[in-house]
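Problem: given the chain below (198 residues), write out its structure.
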Amino acid sequence: MKKNKRGQKRKTVLWVILVSFWTFFLAVIFSLVTQLLLKDLHSVIISFVLLIIVILIGIFFDIIGTAITAADERPFHAKAAKKIFGAKKGIYLVRNAEQVANFCNDVIGDISGIISGSIGAIIIIKLATGIPQPNEIYYSIVMAGIVSALTVGGKAYGKSLAINNSIEIVLSTARLLTAFDKVFFWKNPRRRRVKQKL
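Solution.
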């Protein structure tokens, strides 16, 4: 029992370190890309479109994380027995729901929140150019309200959607990840045959 607890604690500590590293790495990359895109971009409309895309990314990953947390493992075993594409990956996602949800909801969610805030600030600066100081404050308040309303409202709807359609969402995600694995981590079947013969 003590060994299991120690192993679990060590696993948790490693996961915290790993997820902290990935959060820092992804936040820096996404923030840098966003800043580069908006640096020479003078169109407020395109900036708004980019803001909406970032918010939608956060909502999308929040839906996946919530669906994986809400999903039951048993239907995926039945699907895996029927050799349905992506079912095995679905089992893996549900078994590791805590880590997957942490990455989707917290890591990606927080990063998208930070970036959407940065984009909102840049839009305010563009709108407020040549406008008296008091109006700039009003723009800032309204923009904060818009970003918050879209994010919270979108995630509220997304959570309801995720809970009611958890199996379908997890299976779709699993299929996408399985296809990704096959494309980027494809192994030569000839090598497998050679290994089997040896």
